[in-house]
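Researcher: I'm preparing a figure for a lab meeting and need a structural model of a single chain. I don't have an experimental structure, so a prediction will have to do for now. The sequence is pasted below. Please return the structure as tokens so I can convert it later.
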Amino acid sequence: MQTVLLPSGARLAYDDLGPRPELPVLLVHGHPFDRSMWGPQAEYLSRNGHRVVVPDLRGYGESTGPAVRGLEDFAEDLAGLADHLGIGRFVLGGLSMGGQIVMQTVRDYPERIAALLLADTFAEPETDEGKVTRNQAADRVLAEGMTAYADELLPKMVSPGTFRENPEVTEHVQKMMRNAPATGAAAALRARAKRPDYRDSLKQVSVPTLVAVGSEDEFTPVADAQLLHQLVGSSELVVLDGAGHLPNLERAAEFNDVFGRFLDQDHAEER
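Model: Understood. Here is the structure written out token by token.
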């Protein structure tokens, strides 16, 4: 693990793995997780010749800093981390909230993006009901901590098959959620409630894009991924059978194979 203090005041913890090709891969975790969410991908890709940078978002894992006010603060941190590492353009991937942070980064720093991974995420702004729900959840985790919130989310985060048959993944997901700092999780919930509509900006994306989703995802069902695929003309869509909201963990081998092949295409990797 390494850390960097950014101009935003955030101190990000991150892993920087693998060789040093011209086009690194930067992966953004979801809520309420940390960079260990991308462990199978970081290990697989770095072993196969890719440079992989995986940070804890501000307020999560081992990263600290002022409470984020909007997803643009996370995007600024990612650009600042890339600047610190001397990275100009990069492949950017995110899952769930991480995917929305990716969309915000594409909107704010389009010149930095060489290719995209959008996993189990959606582009629409929050509904009025959703804003209330997210802010209530923020109030709750600040008052009660993360344990009960995490335990309630767990059955929806992974598919029923994963929950029954893969205790290692299920326990990892539960541990990440329980260990998430309540203040960071609450700030991110409020930031997500204020997120903009990313649909128009996605229509402008021309870089290679992989859209991935678990076939049994309750939070962002396949229909959401299909819409992303329609919005981004240069995209391909992959549905991972039997996975829920975290196919990169639930079906890690298949996810790695799909993402690895995408990166190894000439148009996605400049060596």
